[in-house]
Amino acid sequence: MAETLKKAPNNLFSQKRQENVEADDVTRALPHAVGPEKSLLSTMLQDPQEYIGLAVEEQLTAAHFYLPGHSTLFGFLIDLFEAGNEVELVSLVQRLLDKGLLERVGGPGYLTELYTYAPSPGHFRHHLSHVKDKFTLRAIIRSSNEAVAMAYEAPDEVPELLDSVEQNILSIRESAETTQAQTMKQTVEEVMRNFQMLLSKEKLSAGLSTGFEELDRKSGGLKAGEMFVIAARPSMGKTSFMMNIVENVCLDQGKPCMVFSCEMSSAQLVQRLLFARAKFAVSQLSRGYSPKKQELERVRNASMQIVDSKLFIDDTAGISINELRAKARRKKRDENIEFIAIDYLQLMKSRTKQAENSREREIAEISGGIKALAKELNIPILILAQLNRGPEGRTGKSLGVPRMSDLRESGSIEQDADLVGLLYRNKYYAENEEERAALEGKAELVLAKNRNGETGSIPLTFVEEVMRFETGPPAEEQD
Predict the structure, then answer these.
(1) Could you tell me how many helices (H) and strands (E) the chain has, helices first?
(2) I need a labelling partner for 87 at 20 to 30 A (CA). Which of 56, 97, 123, 348 fits?
(3) What is d(CA 113, CA 193) in angstroms, rounded to the nearest whole number?
(4) Tell me: the pLDDT tens digits for 433-450?
(5) Which SS3 state, helix, strand or coil, does residue 54 take?
(6) What are phi and psi of 207, to 5 degrees?
(7) How far apart, in whole angstroms, are the C-alpha atoms of residue 265 and residue 316?
(8) Cα dihedral 198, 203, 209, 214 sign
């Protein structure tokens, strides 16, 4: 009993201290750096052309400023700068007065004080980093408070809450990082390194090989930062073509890859990959076929190669672009993935308010987000897309032949893509058995857009039993 009484005051003191901490958190001002904010504005007022331009380059925004008056003034300076108007104190006061903003920024006296505040513009970058750091801290606090509130309000929606919190934190990191442009020297050196490798035959293309020689020749391979769209009507073999490329990049070249599948489960994708690699038609087992020893050995070897590979599959249905971006960033950080494949674009979602009432806007946001992700992670991204019914509506020799304009729901896909390949098989449109037999195995990929190379038709062979595409036309055509 005595021991309990001895402990009680300490416990009471700890409880009281926790209450005081919580009270302090409520009344404590958010992190800020008013002095550096004044210094930035002062430097921009003294030398607008140099330092407003530098602020834009460093991605400084009005939201970075803690004081509303500073935020308003900075936004006004940016508007003047972008409009090409002169920025000097007297005309600035008059412009602010005309707009009814003079008192909001502190009046003419405060503007005069700002103008003479910074002793030297040499501290501009140093003060800018202070302002950005404080903004990041405020964003973390706000995001954390929102997370706490949501955790109390929606305790049963844990997975959705976790995704939302993670996206908010990742968006803070994204806004805090300023991407510095390469110098011309660095850019030229990179181009010359690729040129030297091509001259020395170290690799056949500037990017990752797809495994299809003619496609590699035309496209230069899967290059970092590029978005490659493979589009087709249903049942043309889009997923098989994608997994054939994944097989080549991940298993043959040993590159870590990630596949996002909105339509098929990870087990279905792995089954396709395994039996396509083993070149074994698993469908024949349902007809009572007994595999030969060498066939079983091929299946076993293929399974071991897949197990040992760095292939990561996410089969979240209807994944949002923000969720995909977050997962891809983590895999890039943890596993250094070098290639992403997505099946397929129209099954993805965008959660923004602008996309709620417009499917075209939603597709545009997803397409733009994928292109931005490819540049951010500096890796190629292959994404499948669905075509509309245009190919079926054509007649004669054009029946079934796809065009880039057939891309469903948004022209932004062809705008964002660096390469667009249109996949089709003539057999699908055959009118009778004789014609279908003549077109057996024949497939074609029309490279309709290639931002950095030639376009044209690429003949392929589709081995339907093992769901596998191969380079070149069927053997009888080659003969």
Answers:
(1) 19, 9
(2) 123
(3) 53
(4) 777 777 777 888 989 888
(5) helix
(6) -125, -165
(7) 8
(8) positive
Question: Which of 242, 425, 419 lies closest to 343, judged by CA?
Answer: 242
Q: How far apart are CA 174 and CA 136, in angstroms?
A: 11
All domains in the chain, ordered by first residue: 34-175 (1.10.860.10), 202-478 (3.40.50.300)
Res 472 pLDDT > 80: no
Query: pLDDT, tens digit, for every residue of 295-346?
Result: 888 888 888 888 888 889 888 888 888 778 878 888 888 889 999 999 878 8
The mean pLDDT value of the chain amounts to 79
Query: Of the given ranges (75-84, 98-107, 233-242, 244-253), which has the lowest mean pLDDT?
Result: 75-84
Q: Which residues contact 124 (CB under 8 A, 6 or more apart)?
A: 39, 40, 43, 51, 54
d(Cα 267, Cα 263) in Å, to the nearest integer?
A: 12
Higher pLDDT, 323 or 127: 127
Q: Is 381 exposed, middle or buried (0-12, 13-18, 19+ CB in 10 A)?
A: buried
Beta bridge partners, 423, equal 445
- Using one digit for the tens of pLDDT, what is the confidence trace for 251-270? 989 999 999 988 888 888 88
What SS3 state is found at 223? coil
Per-residue three-class SS string for 462-479: EEHHHCEEEECCCHHHHC
Look-up of token digits 């292109």: 371
Q: What is the CA radius of gyration of the chain?
A: 30
Residue 84 has pLDDT above 50, yes or no: yes
**What's the predicted TM-score (pTM) here?**
0.62
CB atoms within 10 A of CB 304: 10
3-class SS of residue 73 = helix
Q: Tell how strand 442-450 and strand 339-343 pair up.
A: unpaired
Q: What residues are paired with 320 via a beta bridge?
A: 349
Cα 443 to Cα 140, 236, 286: the distances in Å are: 53, 9, 27
Neighbours of 51 (CB within 10 A): 22
CA trace torsion 42, 43, 45, 51 (10° rounding):
-150
How do 257-261 and 311-314 pair as beta strands?
Answer: parallel
d(CA 328, CA 381): 11
Cα 209–Cα 210–Cα 214 angle in degrees, nearest 5: 95
